[in-house]
Amino acid sequence: MISGSCLCGKVKYEITGEVGDIVHCHCKTCRKAHGAAFSSVAAVKDCDFNLSGQASLSSYESSPGKVRHFCSCCGTQVYAKREGTEHLILRLGSLDTDPMSREANHIWVSQKASWYSIINDLPEYQEFE
User: Fold this and answer.
1) pTM (global) more than 0.90
2) What is the bridge-based pairing of β-strands 87-91 and 39-45?
3) Distance (Å, whole) CA 36 – CA 33
4) Where are the beta strands (DSSP E) in the chain?
5) What pLDDT was estimated at residue 129?
6) Closest CA to 65 of 89, 82, 86
């Protein structure tokens, strides 16, 4: 079982299926939302994601049709959801266990923080492709 939680523990989740390939997103909204150089994410099917502590979950539509969900107490970004999809975008920093997934690429490198250098051989995409 793959599980995760927010920093304060009020929001928790379990994943009963597979976690998709890991993508490192360098877009401006991910950098701002996480206060970091990039955000590591992976897709999880909606039907495989079991969330508890919804009362402590807040949300913010960061771009049209994309809503970010985070703990209203500690601020941990837990997942994002795009309209019309059957999966969510899991924020891997909230994991408590190994996702048993692999790194695939970097996206939105065109918006990468100027003070950070990517030092690996993963494919890099200027936008989301």
Assistant:
1) yes
2) antiparallel
3) 8
4) 2-5, 12-15, 22-25, 39-45, 49-52, 57-63, 66-71, 77-82, 87-91, 103-107
5) 64
6) 82
Structure tokens at 114: 């100027």
pLDDT exceeds cutoff 90 at 21: yes
Other Cβ atoms within 10 Å of 63 Cβ, number: 11
Closest Cα partner for 113 from 34, 5, 16? 34
Q: Provide the 3-class DSSP secondary structure of residue 76.
A: coil
Exposure string for 7-22, b = 16+ CB within 10 A, e = fewer: eeebbbbbbeeebbeb
Running DSSP on this structure, what letter comes out for residue 31?
Answer: H
Cα separation of 41 and 91, whole Å?
A: 5
User: How would DSSP label each residue in 83-113?
Assistant: TT-SEEEEEGGGBSS-----EEEEE-GGG--
